[in-house]
Amino acid sequence: xxxxxxxxxxxxxxxSSCQKAPHILGASAKFLSHPVEIIDGSDTARVSGxxxxxxxxxxxxxxxxxxxxxxxxxxxxxxxTRTLGGITSLDGSKATLLVPYMDLREPTYDLSRxxxxxxxxxxxxxxxxxxxxxxxxxRLKLDDGVLSAMRQFAEAGGKVxxxxxx
Length: 166
Prior knowledge:
- By secondary structure, the protein is of the alpha+beta class.
- It has three helices and 13 strands; from the N terminus they run αββββαββββββββαβ.
């Protein structure tokens, strides 16, 4: 009986320390057709041909990042193709993500030619599996202005660029 009590207490302690899964409250997209300098972690980068996504969560991602790994994945909702995007900065409950409109590894993934909604997932990772969690996929439909900017960029021969600024 004593062993069962210890097991119940241990499970309750683990469950009470579980990480709350973040919930994405909203997101917006902007297409960077001209070179723009952005903050990427502790560096500055000059980028173009990429989507800049602003994602709002119900969790203070910046504070959470002090003790856990905060990550994001972006994929085409219809194709399922995962892009080479990632978080560039955190500001409270907001995350800024940088995502190329086309994937050089997967030539068939090109949002300017085959537009589709993009699915965003925010996750919190830890060495403790009970402290890891991720959001449900948030479906973001790109508006006509963003799609038009991508098409014009692609038709003009624009390239996806990312370079560190010294």
